[in-house]
Structure formats: structure tokens, C-alpha cells
Design a protein that fits this description.
By secondary structure, the protein is mainly α. It contains 5 helices and no strands. The radius of gyration is 11 Å and the shape is globular.
Length: 76
């Protein structure tokens, strides 16, 4: 989450390639956002692609605290 919030693409890539537990993809911050929400909100295509590649498909449909999915945010 911290690497994604800071826009650290290579750190995120290294962490994912190391084999981080997939459950981390679904951990939420104080705003109810998962890492994919953050990447999309920050318009970080590289990070979003990494998270989609390594994470569970269900993350595309997880809602944040205001009921938005990462796909809905990307459409805005």
C-alpha cells in the first residue's frame, strides 16, 4: 500500500515478483481503498497494470468507502 501511494513502481514490482501474499491486494486503507483504487486515482497506469497482473480478479469490483470500484474510478 505504501509503495503504491508513493508511486514506487519498481518497489511494487519487486515486492510482487518476490511473491507477496495475494490477500494484501484486498487490504484497505482508512478511506476503504485497496491499492488498485489508489493507483487508478493517481493515474498510475504502470502500477495499475502490475496490480491487475499479480492480483486477484475480484479487486476490479471491490468498492471503496463511497461505493466506487477501481473500474468506475478509471471511467471518471
Amino acid at each position: 500500500m505504501v509503495a503504491v501511494k508513493c508511486g514506487l513502481t519498481e518497489t511494487t514490482r519487486a515486492t510482487l515478483e518476490f511473491g507477496v501474499n495475494p490477500a494484501i491486494f484486498l487490504s484497505k486503507d482508512a478511506d476503504g481503498s485497496i491499492p488498485l483504487h489508489i493507483a487508478v486515482q493517481n493515474t498510475s497506469t504502470a502500477l495499475a497494470e502490475l496490480l491487475i497482473q499479480y492480483g486477484p480478479t475480484g479487486q476490479l469490483y471491490m468498492e471503496n468507502s463511497v461505493g466506487q470500484t477501481p473500474l468506475e474510478i478509471a471511467g471518471l
